[in-house]
Amino acid sequence: MSPSQLAFDRDHLWHPYTSLVDPLPVYPVASAEGYRLRLADGRELVDGMSSWWSAIHGYNVPELNAALQAQSRKMSHVMFGGLTHEPAVALGQRLVDITPDGLDRVFLADSGSVSVEVAMKMAVQYQHALGHRNRTTFLTVRGGYHGDTTGPMSVCDPVTGMHQLFAGFMPRHEFYDRPPGGYAAALDPDYVAGLETFFQRHADRSCAFIVEPVVQGAGGMHFYSPAYLEVFRALCDRHGLLLIYDEIATGFGRTGTLFVGGDAGAGEGQSRHRPDIMTVGKALTGGYLTLAATLCTARVAETIGRSEASVLMHGPTFMGNPLACAVAVASIDLLLSSGWREDIARIAAGLERHLRPAARKESVKDVRVLGGIGVVECRDPVDVARIQAQFVAEGVWVRPFGRLVYVMPPYVISDAALELLCRTVVKYV
């Protein structure tokens, strides 16, 4: 990129959560291959972010390239209203096969945030169809992140989601404390009792409980025990609420299981705490194109279908885009044939070994690892511009936020590159 292009970028292009008055530095990327990003000046960086959880296979993947090229020669897009096509059907079949049993109705959305909007609309329409027209509020826990459009933002954490800034514009919902931390922690009976009281107080006006299962992502990288998912399921059943899992960040193997809601047919607890609605995205296309999906049970779909409206009130222009669907099919097939469980186990072991020394530093509050996710929580907010420049100088790419420096590398990362990534984080936190 030329200096004039960089100047235009600085003065005119908004980057995520970056001011146009005093923007954070950006680093021009010329190409990417495997788990490496190649900058315009020739430097190479080990990617520790999988482009925000999405590029699980790395970059310039032959199988995904081939799927994209083959589909582009047939049709790049066709409206999904009144038409259908093989890539959409094939993707729907795969999603039904690999997601928790019973989630067999599929809405193809065009981004993760939109898939959550759709899930929320499903829940409202479901309760409306049952005659519960006053049940329009959502219950959730603090510390969550579900997207930046209005509906999803309204169920994000009230502080980190900046609810005060949009007060009067954004709908208000009910929040309880997030589950106590620790993936292996036992249930806290006081927490469960408080959550039961919370449901008793608000459930009669609420349509659903929405949560990121086990891992809260951009709201704080908080891990909690899957035992709480059974509590959520039981309370929703008792009070007539739908249970929504947002697996946009956790899906497709990142935590060590294909989906936190349970691998389909694998006996991983799906019958105990299976959601009524689930959203997936990010890694769905291996980071190639924007695509997401909202899956629900037949009961939810049929209840909406028998209602006065009879249809789900959403229909994006690029719904079921053939290019994105074809790449998603190829990405799922590649994942299932790749030995991803062994890769995640290998990455988890490397993160434990090489990130854990950060816990001895005075500046660090906590180090935690789950599957292919490693988190260093600092005591004070991180100077993003400074620490990112240090990371780039060492040959790694990590994007911190708040007090968190976290990594979730592509599944194909080598052991040596993973060690470099972790040691660099430990060096500068």
From TrEMBL:
GO terms for biological process: biotin biosynthetic process. InterPro entries: Aminotrans_3, BioA, PyrdxlP-dep_Trfase, PyrdxlP-dep_Trfase_major, PyrdxlP-dep_Trfase_small. SUPFAM superfamilies: PLP-dependent transferases. Pathway: Cofactor biosynthesis; biotin biosynthesis; 7,8-diaminononanoate from 8-amino-7-oxononanoate (SAM route): step 1/1. Its cofactor is pyridoxal 5'-phosphate. It comes from the Bacteria. Its main location: cytoplasm. Pyridoxal 5'-phosphate binds at G112, S113, D246, P316, T317. Pfam families: Aminotran_3. The modification N6-(pyridoxal phosphate)lysine is found at K282. It catalyses: (8S)-8-amino-7-oxononanoate + S-adenosyl-L-methionine = S-adenosyl-4-methylsulfanyl-2-oxobutanoate + (7R,8S)-7,8-diammoniononanoate. The record marks Y17 as: Participates in the substrate recognition with KAPA and in a stacking interaction with the adenine ring of SAM. Homodimer. This is Adenosylmethionine-8-amino-7-oxononanoate aminotransferase. The lineage of its organism: Bacteria, Pseudomonadati, Bacteroidota, Saprospiria, Saprospirales. The gene is bioA.
